[in-house]
Design brief:
By secondary structure, the chain is mostly beta strands. The protein has one helix and 17 strands. An eleven-stranded antiparallel sheet has the order 1-4-5-6-7-10-13-14-15-16-17, with no helix packed on it. A two-stranded antiparallel sheet has the order 2-3.
Length: 293
């Protein structure tokens, strides 16, 4: 009745070729809805893409593997525990704190079946190719890191009710400043780095002309004494025929080639025309097509 809630999830996973069982679970407790405050914990043993944004969906990778003989997804194995707390400090200002530990291990291909491949043609190894590191065969290691993220929406407006609060559509851009520190020696951690990242984004409405989304983002490593591929900054690429139309995605970029431990900057603009273009064409408008640029 007071809009507080808790949620518990279990995620079992099994590799039939590797004969490995990967169990993981998470729990979330939302204890102050008016402050958007919650605490969460997750732990388990699983596999993870080197880019934590998971740029390629597993079923698309399976389709490409089976029918074109291309294995784009690159994975590593980890045993992990992750703690998170998020809450609003002031109107429009939200703090997110994440602490996690991972015991990481490399994974290798255990199956080479495909309908499309010729005999004696191998899949690419399960290790990314990167311009800064070359072929990346990640050694087994441990990683402990802490992340602090501040999100600010200037002049954010709300609708207040006794037990909850609703954020109105923001009139000003969202500004997110993130600091991440890889802590060497903590629980045997091998990583030693610190990063700073700034992202500014907003949506714009053009009425009948549709709406637009834009984002600029930049950052750098403040220190990089020991950094592994999962800790790089990754650009979300795509090498399949299936577009994602996501503001954070590049439709023609390799998944790992340009991941970096150096400074980076990116800018994206996307315009959703809705029916503005195709609704003006006879017969075509009946298909309910929408254009995105």
């Amino acid at each position: 009745d007071d809009n507080r809630f808790y949620e518990i999830n279990a995620s079992p996973r099994y590799g039939f070729s590797s004969e490995q069982f990967y169990p993981s679970a998470s729990a979330v407790y939302s204890y102050n809805p008016k402050r958007y405050a919650y605490a969460a914990v997750s732990l388990g043993h699983t596999v993870q893409q080197f880019n934590p944004d998971n740029p390629i969906r597993p079923y698309i990778n399976s389709f490409m593997t089976l029918f074109s003989g291309e294995n784009f997804m690159k994975l590593y194995e980890k045993t992990f525990v992750r703690l998170r707390h998020r809450g609003e400090l002031a109107p429009g200002l939200r703090l997110d704190v994440i602490a996690q530990f991972e015991d990481r291990s490399p994974l290798f291909n255990t199956n080479d079946f495909s309908f499309a491949r010729e005999e004696n043609t191998d899949f690419t190894p399960n290790s990314p190719v990167n311009v800064e590191l070359g072929d990346v065969t990640m050694p087994a290691h441990q990683a402990a890191d802490i992340e602090l993220s501040l999100r600010w929406i200037p002049f954010q407006k709300y609708i207040d009710r006794p037990d909850e609060r609703f954020s109105l559509y923001p009139e000003w851009p969202r500004i997110i400043l993130t600091y991440r520190r890889g802590v060497s020696g903590l629980l045997g951690s091998d990583v030693d780095y610190s990063t700073i990242d700034l992202k500014i984004s907003h949506d714009l409405s053009f009425g009948l002309g549709g709406y637009a989304e834009w984002q600029v983002r930049g950052g750098t490593l403040l220190s990089a004494n020991q950094v592994f591929m999962p800790d790089f900054f990754h650009f979300n690429g795509n090498r399949t025929p299936f577009g994602k139309f996501n503001l954070n995605s590049y439709e023609l970029l390799d998944y790992y080639q340009f991941a970096t431990q150096d400074a980076y900057f990116k800018a994206n603009y996307s315009h959703h025309f809705n029916g503005f273009l195709f609704n003006k064409l006879p017969f075509i408008r009946k298909l309910d097509l929408q254009a995105v640029g």
